[in-house]
Structure formats: C-alpha cells, structure tokens
Amino acid sequence: MKARILVVDDDEALAEMIGIVLRNDGFDPVFCADGGQALDVFRSSKPDLVLLDLMLPGVDGIEVCRQIRGESDVPIVMLTAKSDTSDVVRGLESGADDYVPKPFKPAELVARVRARLRPGDQKAPETLRIADITIDVAGHTVKRADERISLTPLEFDLLVALARKPWQVFTRELLLEQVWGYRHAADTRLVNVHVQRLRSKIERDPEAPEVVLTVRGVGYKAGS
Amino acid sequence: MVSATKQVPESSGPEDAPDPATRRGPEHTDALAAELAALPFRARIWRRRGIIVGLRVARLVRLGLSRFFPALRYVGRSLQRRWRRSLQFRTVLTTLLLAVTSFGAVGAYLSNQIANNLFQERLTQAESETRYNVKQVQDTFDGAQVTDQSSVITLVYDTLNAVEGRGSVIQRRYVFEAKPEQTKPRNRWVESRASDQLTVSVIPPDLRKAVQTSGKDQYWASTLIPVGTEDRPGIAVGNLVTFNGTVYELYLIYDLNTAQQTLDEIQGVLLAGGAVLVLMIGAIAWYVTRNVVSPVSHAALVSEKLAAGQLQERMVVKGEDEVARLGASFNHMAASLQEQITQLATLSQMQQRFVSDVSHELRTPLTTVRMAAEVLYDARHDFDPINKRSAELLYNQVERFQSLLADLLEISRFDAGVAMLDAEPDDIVQVIAHVIEGAAPVAAEYGSEIILRAPADGIVAEMDARRIDRILRNLILNAVEHGEGKPVTVTVAANQTAVGVAVRDHGIGMTPAEAARVFDRFWRADPARARTTGGSGLGLSIAMEDTKLHNGWLQAWGNKGSGSNFRLTIPLRQGEEIDRSPVQLEPGDIVLPDGRIHTNFLVLEPGRTTSPGAATSAGAGSSAGQASTPKEQP
Fold first, then answer.
1. Which residues does chain A have within 8 Å of residue B466's beta carbon, measured at their own beta carbons?
2. Contact status, residue A216 vs residue B427, Cβ threshold 8 Å
3. Is the CB of residue B551 less than 8 Å from the CB of residue B570?
4. Model confidence at B516: pLDDT above 60
5. In the β-sheet with A170-171, what is the strand arrangement from edge to edge?
6. Can you name the residues that pair with A32 across neighbouring β-strands?
7. What is the pLDDT, as a whole number, of residue B21?
8. What CATH number is attached to the domain comprising B390?
9. Distance from the CA of B594 to the CA of which of A216, B320, B386, B447 falls in 20 to 30 A?
10. Vertex B104: Cα angle to B98 and B105 (nearest 5)
11. B489, B453 in Cβ contact below 8 A?
C-alpha cells in the first residue's frame, strides 16, 4: 500500500514539483494550498504524513500544525524558508517532528519522509523502565503507575532510544542518527526542542527532570 | 578676660611670699604652720593621684579612639566623597567656613576693643579714687595726735576701714605695708594691714618695687584677687603714705568683676549673634546654590537616563531664564536624538524584514528549480548529448546559485545584527572530528590527508556548535583546496582562558598582501583559477563574523610557497577575555631554502573590527626575525 502524504503549500509550482518527486518514489501525494482548509483535507484524506509549509496565506503553518497535532499523532515535517532559530524552534514547539529547510534536494526530502514513515521497526514485545515510567514497546504505550501518557511516535522513539541503553550518554548527534535517521547530523536544535516537549509530558517537574537527564557538555541520558 | 595694658606676672603660693603669715594674727599662725608642714606630703599624694587619674583617662581616650576611629574615617570619607561630587555641598561648606572665619576675626576685634575701653574707664576711675582716698588717709595720718599703741592701731585701722567704703558693698580693698629697709625710726605698732582675705603677696613685685622707689608717684598693675572662693581680676594702685615718719606702701585694689561680667555678656551676645548669622548665611547659601544647581543636576540625571536608552526622558522647563533656556535646548537635542535613533531602528527593522522576505521569496522558487534540475539530471542518460550537457550545467549552476544565496543571506543576517549566539558547553574536538569526517570525501578527491592533533579527552568550551562547525568546515575545506594534495594538519589545544585550533596546509601559501585581504568579501587570491574551486567567496567572511560573535580571534598566517596557517581562538567561557592563544600562529615546521621568508600576520580583535570584514594588520615582516607577533606568540 502506498503511503499517503498531504502536502500543504501555497506555491503551486513547488507543490506540483514535490508531487512529481513523491510519486516518482512511490508515494501518494494529496495537496492543499490554503491553511484554512488544511484541517478538512487532513480529516478527509487521512494521510500517513504531512508536509507543511510554515508560511501560508490565511491560517499560518504553525497554527495548522497545532490543529493537526490536536487530533492526531501523524508525523509532521515542516518546509521552511527561514532557517532562523526562532522560526524553526517555534515550528518544532507547535508539534512538528522534523523540518526541511528550503531549498532542499529531492533526495533529502524523500529521505526525511521515509525516516518519519519508518514502519514501527520490528518491535518485539518488550517492556522498558526509566525512573517510574513503564514503556510497552510493542503496544506503543507509556505509563506512569496506571496513568497512560500520550506521546507522538517521534517522542516515543526518543524515549525508547534512551531507555534501551540507560547506561549510555547519548550525544545529540547520536540521537539525530538513531531517532531521526540522519546519516550526517543536521541541526541539534531538533533534539533540544523535542527533549523539552518530551519532558513537559513525562516529567513530574520539567524544571527538575528525573526521566531524561541532561549531561552538561555531552548530551542526554535516561534517569535511573 | 580683661587684658591689662601692663601685664605683671602674678606671684603664687604662700611659700614665695616673704612669709606674711607670721605677721598676721596669732590665731592664724598655728593653722598655717601646720598646713605648711603638711604641704610636701600632700603634694606627693596629689601628684600620685594625678598620675593615676591621668593614666586612666589616657587609657579611656585610647580605647574610645580605637572604637571611634573607623566611624570617624567612614564619616570623613563620605564627607570627602560629597565634597568631590556635590557642588552645592562644596559651596555651602566654603561659605560657612569663610563666614565663621570672618565673624571670628570681627568678633575678636570688637571684644578686644570693648574690653580695652571698659578696662581703661575702670582704670581712670580707680586712679582718681585712689588719689582722693590716699590724700584722705595722708591727711588723717598727718593730723593725728596719738602716741600710745592702742590709739595708733585704732586710728590706722579705722582710717583704712574707711577706705573700703561705706555700705555693705566693698568698693575697694587695700593692702597696707611698711616699706622695708627704712633707716628712719619706725612705728613699731603697725607693720602691715590688709583687707579680708588679702595679703601683700597679691601685689605684683614689680609694682611694689616701682612704688617703693618712686616717692610720690602713683603706680598701678593688674592682678588677681581672692574673693570668696574664686580669683577675680583686679587693678592694684599703689602709693606711699607717711605716718609718724614711717613710710608705708598703700595699695588700693579695685575689683574688675563687674566689668568682666559686662564683657562676658557682650561676648556672649556677640557669639550667639555670630552663630545665628553663620547659620543663616549657610541656609541662604544652601538655598541659592540649590536654585542654581538643582536644574543642573536634574539635567545630569535626565542625560544619564537618555544615555541609558530612555529616549522619552525630558527636562522640566519653567520660566525664561538661563536655566529654562538650557532645559529647552536640552529637550530639543533629546528630541532630535530620539527621532534619529527611532529612524535608525526602523531602518534596521525594515532591513531585517527585507532580508527575511527575500529569503522566503527567493527560496521557494529556487527549491522548485533545484528539484526540477535534479530530476532532469537524474534522467540525463536518456537525453541526447546536447540536452544531457544542458541538464548537467543547469544542475551544477543551480547548486552554486543556492550556496551563493545561502551565504549572502547569512552575511546579511550578520549585517542586520540579528545573528544570535546560541552557546552551550560542548566538546570542540568532537566537532572537529565530525568536520574532518565530513571533509574526507573532498580530501580524498584532492589526495590530501587530514591529520588531527588533539588531546584524547577532548576540550569542552562554551560555544555555538553550529557556528564553530561552519567556521572549521570552511577553514579545513579551504586548506584542502589550496593544499595541493599535501597533508593538512589540524592542531587543537587549550589553556586556562581559551581553546585554539590551527589549520595548517603546505600548499601554495599567500603573500602578505593576500593574507591581509583573505577575510574580505568576495576576495579571491587568484582570480584566474578562482571560479573552478567553487565556493561563494563569502566563506571566510562568514567565518570571521561567526568568530566575532564568540568574542574570539580568527587569524591568518601565510608564506608564499610554504603554505598557510589559520588559527581560531575562542574563550573557554563566554564573556571572558582571551589571555593568549594556546596554539602558535606561525608554524614551527617551515623550511626556508634561501633564508628569505614572506610572513604575514593578521590579528583581528573583536573590539577593534567594527566594520564587517575589516582587518587590522598587526605586523608584516619580510625577515624571520621580525616575524613574530608580540602578544599572542606562545
């Protein structure tokens, strides 16, 4: 079955070009040129992944991202023309999993899409623990005591990567490679933002983390 | 104190007198003798007591001062500070000091004049009264017809008592004493006589001598007389009188107490008046200077706030005087300043928005073009040769255009001042290793080897890893491109304040003139071969901007034929100063075939390079001896 990808971009030429590239690589693209209609198209087409331009007429990309994230865990990859830190961070904070800065190569785009669409690997029944958090890898659920915590697939992958090797300190580059699937590290801000988001969901006090610990000057590790 | 016009030292102590006690009444003699005998003993006791009390007081004073001095010093220092910093304080204090000095001088002169006049008046009165009374006494003595002892004594005593004056108030006192060493037969019944409490010792010896040797003249001197328990100032006027052929000295003594009291009162009034006047003058000075100084200090306050960026701050303008004019022109200045700054800020904002818009507007179509070019490029094997070559050219030039645009946008972000340092502790050796790994394909293409010399346990520094990565990628790729296939050495080291990275190649090198311009925008060492090596020509300029953002140094050394060396130095902790770079700028491995060397240093200090890309050449030597930077050379 072809993976369906929703492309939300107001630039018709670019959208068409993206469509050509995606179709060429065996995806099924769906288009939407208006931020205001993005949510309706999303509901009707039920895509497996969303490619979202940050600058849209009407409702802007960040708002669209928030709306989609409000009702779905579908991976969202942003297309940004601005590589300013504030824009990227704003986009990631609104719920996007990854971003591709314009101008990008077709191969780069496809690689990112594939990375986000990675089928749940070969998840063996496995239960992991960090601090007071229990992770059921196959069942894709995270619990504290009996309370279920809802995470996006990316956040889940990040947590599982840390939990599998609690003795190891992960550099940001290593996490980018293992969780995002980048061969050559792009932007470590991705990791920072997602760790913050993950913490806001699973930590009792995100200011004093117990589950995901920062190792100053190196990276992150799982709490014990 | 009444000052006498003729000061005669007062003789003190009963021992100094020619033993007058023996000539007093017999009832006094015993008591006085006992007292005199006990005197040396008492004096010893009192001396010891005095010493003990003195020591105690000294200790107390020392203790008090040791406690008191720090406080005193603090007060002194704060006063000094106020003296330096407050015009008003200085003016008021100076006015007060001058007022006190002048009042002191005037007051001293006035009270001196008054005292003299009072004294002179009393003296004149005393002299005339004395003359009259002495004449009376002499007349009484001359007309006396007495021969027996008791009547002589009675006569003398009555006469002398009459001199003291009638009524309850004693107008004058007397000392009546036979002139010593008389050859004539003497009246043996009356030797001396004095008013109550007085002895001949109150009469200054000089006065006595003058009276004794003069004959009929009248002399005076000021002295102290015991009245009750106190010593009072007085005038003693001396004459000689004769009784039955015996010459006596008769001194009439006038109390100056009333005059002294009057003087004290006048002095008190002067002092009080002076004090009140000084206070009033101080208050007036304070008020006047405040009126003048307060607008000035207000202006100082407002200009400080303006300088701190509160551009809406203005002075209060009242009236039309000089101060109001100052305020008005000050406000005018502030307004035009605010206008210009606002204008600049708006321009800068517009510039930023423009850059951002250009960024977006250019990048979207470029993305489409790039993707299309790549699709065509991937399918080029199906094209005929002409179309195939076209697709290749399109693809390559779109790539180049894209990197040029990215660099341009990056530079314009620096120029707009929106580039922010996102620094956190990171291991710079890992960053370098990562860059070398990334540059490996290019190095392989050129046939160069990249050697990393770094401490095994890494160096953690506060840095923006993305920017450091970009700087080093630029330096290393540059070295590989210009290294002519020879090895490129990357050396990393740290000291207490900084971490240094030197990238050394052994390629064609640079002349001093080239090294001086290497960080300029779009500058290329060899225009003929430039375009083939790719790159936008902005790489080193961006590296310099990134370095400046870290408050670091980026320096270049070059020698034609011996390759070049680029050194990056950044502080270990942001906000700290670099003491010196841990790595050497001039490499120690250069070989000089003919003893001549072209070296060049480019020292760029973050504080001194204000215009983007501007480079300060710190030293350029043509011989090895001159070729050393004075400060950074380890």
1. 187-188
2. no
3. yes
4. yes
5. A170-171, A219-222, A212-215
6. A8
7. 41
8. 1.10.287
9. B447
10. 95
11. yes
**B209 lies in some domain:** yes
Helix, strand or coil for residue B464?
coil
pLDDT in tens, B551-602: 999 988 888 888 889 999 999 988 888 888 888 887 766 554 444 444 444 4
Beta bridge partners of residue B554, listed in sequence order = B568
Chain-chain contact of A14 with B364 (C-beta, under 8 angstroms) = yes
- For B595-626, the pLDDT digits (tens) are 444 444 444 444 433 333 333 333 333 333 33
How far is C-alpha B488 from the geometric centre of its chain's CA atoms?
Answer: 57
Query: Which DSSP category does B456 fall into?
Result: T
Q: Round to whole Å and give the CA distance between A74 and A76.
A: 6
**CB atoms closer than 10 angstroms to residue B485:** 12
Say how far residue B449 (Cα) sits from the centre of its chain. Answer: 62
Domain holding B398, by residue range, is: 311-419
A219: Cβ–Cβ under 8 A, 6 or more apart, which residues?
A: A169, A170, A171, A172, A174, A175, A191
CATH topology of domain A127-222: Arc Repressor Mutant, subunit A (1.10.10)
C-alpha R_g of chain B: 54
Residue B282 lies in a domain: no
A-B contacts (CB, under 8 Å)? 69
Residue B15 to residue B78: CA distance in whole angstroms: 57
Q: Is the dihedral of CA A62, A68, A71, A75 positive or negative?
A: negative
Q: Are the Cβ atoms of A103 and B465 closer than 8 angstroms?
A: no
* Strand, coil or helix: B566: strand
Per-domain residue ranges for chain A? 4-117, 127-222
Are B222 and B4 a contacting pair, CB within 8 Å? yes
Q: What would the mean pLDDT of A19-45 be, rounded to a whole number?
A: 90
pLDDT tens sequence across B152-176:
888 888 888 888 876 666 778 888 8
Are B389 and B447 members of one domain?
no
Angle between helices A85-93 and A189-202 (to 10 degrees): 30
Calculate how close chain B gets to A189, using CA atoms only, in Å. Answer: 10
Beta strands A127-130 and B219-227 are unpaired
| Domain assignment of residue B279, yes or no | no
What are the tokens at B29? 């003699």
Q: Check whether residue B365 and residue B433 sit in a common domain.
A: no
When mean pLDDT is compared across B96-105, B109-118, B579-588, the lowest value belongs to: B579-588
Contact A192, A172 (CB under 8 A): yes
Beta carbons of B360 and A55 less than 8 Å apart: yes
Cβ-based interface (< 8 Å): residues of A facing B: 11, 13-14, 17-18, 20-21, 24, 55, 81-82, 84-85, 102-107, 109, 171, 173, 184-185, 187-189, 216-218
Is residue B498 within a helix (H) or strand (E), and if so which, with residue range?
strand B498-505
| Amino acid type, B400 | R
> Would B196 be classed as within a structural domain?
yes
Q: Are residues B533 and B513 in the same domain?
A: yes
Residue of A183, A37, A110, A190 lying closest to B441 (CA atoms) = A183
In a shared domain, residues B387 and B468:
no
Total domain count, chain B:
3
Last residue of a domain, one of B397, B419, B441: B419
Q: Are residues B142 and B90 in the same domain?
A: yes
Q: Is the ipTM of this complex over 0.85?
A: no
B238 in the same domain as B109? yes
Name the token pair of B180: 């010593």
Q: Cβ distance A127 to A140 under 8 Å?
A: no
| DSSP 3-state of B238 | strand
Same-domain status, B203 and B328: no
A4-117 CATH fold:
Rossmann fold (3.40.50)
Shared-domain flag, residues B350 and B432: no
Cα(A73)–Cα(A158) distance, rounded to whole angstroms? 15
Longest CA–CA span in chain B (Å) reads 178
Q: What is the pTM of this model?
A: 0.51
